Give the backbone structure.
Amino acid sequence: MSTGIVSAQALPSEYVHITTDSHTEPFWTAAREKRLTAPSCGSCGHFRLPPTPFCPECQSQEVNWVELSGRATVFSFSVVRGFPGLKDIVLVPVVVDLPDAPGARLVSNVIDVAPEDVTIGMELQVAFHPISDDWLLPVFRPAEATAVDR
C-alpha cells in the first residue's frame, strides 16, 4: 500500500442527512446497531438494494432482512477532491458487491486508504460512520486494515 499522507475520508456528520420510510427503516435501524443488512424477497429470494416496495424479479411485497458479514468488493469507484465548503477533503465514492447478497450492490464510501490504492476487486469490510440525527452510515475500509482492528 501507498504511504501517501492523504487518506480517503467520509463526509463530516453534519453534511449527511437521511430520510427513512417503512421500506428503508430496517436497513438504517440495523446500521445504527452496527449491522449491515439487505432485503431479500420472501418469495423468490432475490436481493435488492436500495430497498424497494416490490421485488424487481417477481413483484412480491414479501421481504426478509438478512444480516450480512460486512464483506464487500469494489465494483466501481471514483476519487473526488474537494466538496462545497470542504476544499481539502478527499472522498472515494464506491459501488460495492456484497458476496452475502448475490446481485445486490451498495453505494457507499471507502475510507482510511490512499485513493491511489483503491482498485476494482479490492476486498473491503464495513465500518460505521456517525451522521446527523444519531444515525450511522455504512462505509468501507480495506479488509486488511480492518483485520488489525478486530
In short: The first strand starts at residue 37 and ends at 41. Helices lie at 25-32, 143-149. The CA atoms of residues 3 and 114 lie 8 Å apart.
